[in-house]
Structures are given as C-alpha cells and as structure tokens.
Amino acid sequence: MTKPENEAVGRADGPHRRRPTVYQVAERAGVSIATVSRALRADEPVAPETRRRVLAAARALNWWPSRAAQTLAGEAHDAVAIIMPDLAGPYYAQVVAGFESEVVGRDSVVMVLATHGRAASERLVRDLASRIDGLVVMGESVPEPTLHEVVAQVPVVLLARPALPAVTTVSCENVQAAEALTRHLLDHGRRRLRFVGDPEGTPDVQERWTGFGRAHAVAGVPLTAGPVACERLEAESGYRAGLDVLRDPEVDAVFCANDELASGVYRAAAEVGRTVPGDLAVTGWDDVTLAAHLSPRLTTVRQPMRELGAAAARLLFEQIGGARTPATVQLDTEMVIRASCGCPA
Q1: Alpha carbon 141 to chain centroid distance?
Q2: What ranges do the domains of the chain cover?
Q3: Considering Cα of 85, then 86, then 92, then 98, what sign does the dihedral take?
Q4: For the CA atoms of 197, 198, 204, 210, what is the dihedral angle to 10 degrees?
Q5: Which top CATH class is 174-303?
Q6: Whole-angstrom Cα distance, residue 254 to residue 252?
Q7: How many CB atoms lie within 10 A of CB 38?
Q8: Please, which residues have CB within 8 angstroms of residue 297's CB and are 6 or more apart in sequence?
C-alpha cells in the first residue's frame, strides 16, 4: 500500500530504530491519520478531547510532520518565529538580530512575538504555531502546558530556558561565571554584597543568583540579604533598587543581573554620595555597548547575545529539515574586568 505523502517516514535514526510515524500517533490516540492531521492545525474543527489525545500521543512519540512532508502536502509556510518575553533593551535586540542573520538567505520570513506577560499570549502562540514551520521560545515567555502543545505541532528550540525532554535547548553559562564574578568582588575585600535582579523573573537571573550564593558559601561569607527584585531589567528599576540597597551604609558591592540595572545603580550611588568604585563596587552582566561607556567603565560578564540567537536559528532549521535528535547547547560566557569593581582602570 502506498503511504500518504504527509507521513513522516523514511530513514532510521539508528541501525535498528526508525522514526515514529503518523500511523503510530493515530494508533496511540485511537483516531484516524486524517484526524491527526486536522488536530495538529489550530484552525480545524476538532473536539477538544480528541485534540488533547492527539497532542499527547505526538508528544509522547516525539513526532511532528517533517518539512518535506508539509511541502509535498502544500502545508509549508516558509516562515519561522521567535517568541520573546520582551523586546526592550539591547539584549533582546541582539538576540533577534542574531536569529534574523541566520534566516536571511533561507527564503523564510521572520516573525517576532513579544508576550509581555499578556493573558492572551497563549492564544496568540497557538495561533502562530499553525502558521509557521518552526519556533524559537525564549525564557518563560510561554507557559509550559502551552509549550507542550506547540512542541507536538511544530519543531521548537528553547532559548535561555530550562530544558524539556526531547526538545533542543540553547543557553549561555551563568552559574560558574556568576560565582567567579562574586569571588572577584570578595577577593577585593568586599563583604556586604547585594544582588539586584529578580531570580523568579527569568531562568538566567535565577542561575546568576545561584552562582552568587555559591561563591559566598565557598568563601564562608554569609549572604547580606536576599535578592532585590526588579520589575524590569532596565535602568530605572536599577535606580530604584539602588536607592533601596544603599540605605544600608555598610553595603560595599552591588552585583547587578544586567548592565542596564548597573547603570541605574550608578545614578543612585551618585545621588546618595557613594563613589564607584571607591566605597562601592558595581558589576553588571551582558557587556552591552553601554558598559564600556559608563564612568567608571563597568566590570561585567560578556555573553554572546547575537550568537545565542544565531545558534537557535541554525538548530531550528536542522529540526525543520528532519533532525529528530534533540541537542543541548551551552555557550560560554566571559568575565570582563574594568574599573567599577576596584581594579585599576
């Protein structure tokens, strides 16, 4: 019997193992292959319980229609998307630029969706998934239940987010770099350090807080206090957090979760009469252009923001092309020593 063109069949992943097929998904869900096809398209009328069974079966088998099969069936969209929690600031701009740089020349359109914590974002994500060939999801921009649904529909790469089973993930190293940067501050004799940034807000900041705490534990220095949560990773939030932190005159160092927060702490320090780095060390993260132009120049951690987006795009197109082995890629970060920590300019 000739199999339909939209089945993901063909080569084996190993000498004895073949890729899962639409027939296996249909059998597991107890439906026809036509129902599987309809259930994977958000705009098709399918009973909610039936769609749930199909998505669960596809997810369990790690199956989705291949790009070749979609093209033969006239279902390829020649579009990919990246979903971000926000678009403000140089970090997100660099990641999107890197992503777009890899898409150029592949005859695909780039779509960008910033969720901004909106209640309607889950519906927007589901709708978007039905109109594209692949998707990159950054940070916690998509709730995990919705993400599982999307993974069953289209190829997905996670970016700067904790890994999920059978899903490709790209991130930058945070914990060891944060531990090294904190140890550097402690080596300068600083003992009352504060962390500015919300570990509950993003996985990256959570990992930086972990490294911060680990360095204290290894050095036998008790934490001065918990993190100072910021509503946004931007200069104004850093300024408000800085004013709060510097009410304690004994605080002698501020570890900021990104460079923009650090610039706000600089402003707060100037207002309350603290000098950087004389009696207050300040560090950042990312090494955006701003970091080298603050006075004093900011000690920070450089992460390859453009490469983060570019790597996610390359891995996404591998998935769209038929790759089924999930990868976990971690890019290196680098401490950049300047003057704000107390080192010579």
Answers
A1: 8
A2: 22-64, 79-172+305-333, 174-303
A3: positive
A4: 90
A5: alpha beta
A6: 7
A7: 17
A8: 291, 338, 339, 340, 345
Beta-bridged to residue 301, according to DSSP, are: 335
Report if pTM > 0.85: no
CATH superfamily of 79-172+305-333: Response regulator (3.40.50.2300)
Distances (CA, A) of 112 to 94, 115, 124: 13, 10, 12
SS (H, E, C) the chain: CCCCCCCCCCCECCCCCECCCHHHHHHHHCCCHHHHHHHCCCCCCCCHHHHHHHHHHHHHHCCCCCHHHHHHCCCCCCEEEEEECCCCCHHHHHHHHHHHHHHCCCCCEEEEEECCCCCCHHHHHHHHHCCCCEEEEECCCCCHHHHHHHHCCCCEEEECCCCCCCCEEEEECCHHHHHHHHHHHHHCCCCCEEEECCCCCCHHHHHHHHHHHHHHHHHCCCCCCCCECCCCCCHHHHHHHHHHHCCCCCCCEEEECCHHHHHHHHHHHHHCCCCCCCCCEEECCECCHHHHCCCCCCEEEECCHHHHHHHHHHHHHHHHCCCCCCCEEEECCEEECCCCCCCCC
246-250 — which CB contacts under 8 Å span 24+ positions?
A: 246/272, 246/274, 246/280, 248/192, 248/224, 250/192
* CB distance 246 to 267 below 8 Å: no
| Mode of pairing for the β-strands spanning 253-256 and 328-331 | unpaired
Question: How many C-beta atoms lie closer than 10 Å to residue 73's C-beta?
Answer: 14
Chain-centroid distance, C-alpha 158? 6
Q: Count of CB atoms within 10 A of residue 20's CB?
A: 20
Could you tell me the mean pLDDT of each successive run of 10 residues in the chain, 345 residues long?
34 46 83 76 75 85 61 61 91 94 86 84 86 92 90 92 91 98 98 97 95 98 96 94 98 98 98 97 97 98 97 94 87 98 91
Pairing of strands 300-302, 253-256: unpaired
Tokens of 331: 């890019």
